[in-house]
Amino acid sequence: MFKKGSKFYSIFNVKCPRCHEGEFYEHKFTFHPNKVTKLHDNCPKCKLKYMMEPSFFYGAMYVNYGITVTLSISVFLLSKLFFNATLLQCFAAIIITLLLLAPFNLRLSRIIWINMFVSFNKTSIKKEV
Q1: pLDDT at 122
Q2: Does residue 70 carry a pLDDT above 70?
Q3: Does residue 103 fall inside a structural domain?
Q4: Which domain holds residue 96?
Q5: Residue 129 lies in a domain
Q6: What is the DSSP string of 5-53?
Q7: Does the pLDDT of residue 127 top 80, yes or no?
Q8: Binning pLDDT at 50, 70 and 90, where does residue 34 land?
Q9: Any bridge partners for residue 42, and if so which?
Q10: Residue 37 falls within a domain, yes or no?
Q11: Separation between Cα atoms, residue 114 and residue 17, nearest integer Å
Q12: What total of structural domains would you count in the chain?
């Protein structure tokens, strides 16, 4: 399931969706606002152009919306059912969780989005001389 060649491998290892070897982001995970979503222009290994067309990653907003809604419902149910929190406390827990996980969600939604359009191709790996 998480073997090289699967979408999950690319998503969870944050690798190029085509070769599964090149790094997708320029920086490792960070909370720095200017570095959170900074991508390489092309894959360092197979030269796949990550920004396939202008505004390509605007579609990742839909993925991010789905992640955010799922996370919000999960936090609400967890805080209400297990911690017996009030509605205001549940709302505060949701807001805090979403703020803390915003950089992670942005990165995750972009890598999921590009994996929806690019498939693994082991012949795309360029041999280094």
Answers
A1: 79
A2: yes
A3: yes
A4: 7-124
A5: no
A6: TSHHHHHHHTB-TTTS-SBSBSS-S---TTTTT-B-SB-TTT--BSS-S
A7: no
A8: confident
A9: 49
A10: yes
A11: 7
A12: 1
Phi, psi of 42 (to 5 degrees): -130, 160
Dihedral sign, Cα of residue 47, residue 10, residue 117, residue 24: negative
- Count the helix, strand and coil residues of the chain and give each as a percent rounded to the nearest 5: 50, 5, 45
pLDDT, tens digit, for every residue of 47-67? 999 998 989 999 999 999 999
Q: Find how far residue 27's CA is from the centre of its chain.
A: 13
Greater confidence (50 vs 31) lies with: 50
- Asked, for residue 2, whether it belongs to a domain, the answer is no
- pLDDT at position 117 over 90: yes
The string of pLDDT tens digits covering residues 78-95 is 999 999 999 999 999 999
Task: Report in angstroms the alpha-carbon separations of 112 from 1, 37, 59, 94, 119.
Answer: 16, 13, 10, 23, 12
Residues making up the chain, counted from first to last:
129
